[in-house]
Amino acid sequence: MSTLSSDISDRLAGGLIVSCQAYPGEPMRDPRTMAQIARAAVIGGAVAVRLQGIEDIRAAAGLDVPIVGLWKDGDADVFITPTLDHARAVADAGADVVAIDGTRRPRPDGLTLAATVAGLRDTHPRALIMADCGSLDDAIASEEAGVDFLGTTLSGYSGEREKTVGPDIELIQQIAKRCTLPVIAEGRIHSPAHAASARQAGAHAVCVGTAITHPSTITGWFVSALADVSGELA
């Protein structure tokens, strides 16, 4: 692990990364809004933020915590920073860590995961790389490719593992036991208890998005709970 990677890894250790994203067409889908949410998350204690889109990353420049950047693009299976050009653009925008699809699936530009990592290292040697994995085999391949962090982001979405109700604790445990790189638990972490269980399972840090930064979904949880009670009382 490089000195830079070790430094950021130390800053993330045991902490919360907040993913600040909104879907296209939503009222909050605006770079300035996402940057404001990111700053609010930092005030709350986030050790890093995760931002989607070049303009969002640029808008959050100047934060006192690392920015994990990505670019969702296209409608293919691989759409999280899907190509080397996307990865380089994310790094150019100011991301400290570039999150890329860490699965073994074919990429739109035809490059392998290893070639994508090598290509980014060639032009942006200071950019760290987080592999968004969907399985243990993905994590092993990503570690061999030379990334810096292993995320469980795509568990349940790449076709290799069932989609769990909460975080994929089993996968976190598998990766933490088999690999040497820091594991970032991400995906369906909907409560503080979920976050704690992910950390206990071996996660180096925990990334939470929807449960903190997506008011439409959070509102829906409360509405559903009240509807269930109303049904019982009827």
Automatic annotation (TrEMBL):
<dbReference type="GO" id="GO:0019262">
    <property type="term" value="P:N-acetylneuraminate catabolic process"/>
</dbReference>
<keyword id="KW-0413">Isomerase</keyword>
<dbReference type="GO" id="GO:0047465">
    <property type="term" value="F:N-acylglucosamine-6-phosphate 2-epimerase activity"/>
</dbReference>
<dbReference type="GO" id="GO:0005975">
    <property type="term" value="P:carbohydrate metabolic process"/>
</dbReference>
<keyword id="KW-0119">Carbohydrate metabolism</keyword>
<protein>
    <recommendedName>
        <fullName>Putative N-acetylmannosamine-6-phosphate 2-epimerase</fullName>
        <ecNumber>5.1.3.9</ecNumber>
    </recommendedName>
</protein>
<comment type="function">
    <text>Converts N-acetylmannosamine-6-phosphate (ManNAc-6-P) to N-acetylglucosamine-6-phosphate (GlcNAc-6-P).</text>
</comment>
<dbReference type="GO" id="GO:0006053">
    <property type="term" value="P:N-acetylmannosamine catabolic process"/>
</dbReference>
<dbReference type="InterPro" id="IPR007260">
    <property type="entry name" value="NanE"/>
</dbReference>
<comment type="pathway">
    <text>Amino-sugar metabolism; N-acetylneuraminate degradation; D-fructose 6-phosphate from N-acetylneuraminate: step 3/5.</text>
</comment>
<dbReference type="GO" id="GO:0005829">
    <property type="term" value="C:cytosol"/>
</dbReference>
<comment type="similarity">
    <text>Belongs to the NanE family.</text>
</comment>
<dbReference type="InterPro" id="IPR011060">
    <property type="entry name" value="RibuloseP-bd_barrel"/>
</dbReference>
<dbReference type="Pfam" id="PF04131">
    <property type="entry name" value="NanE"/>
</dbReference>
<dbReference type="InterPro" id="IPR013785">
    <property type="entry name" value="Aldolase_TIM"/>
</dbReference>
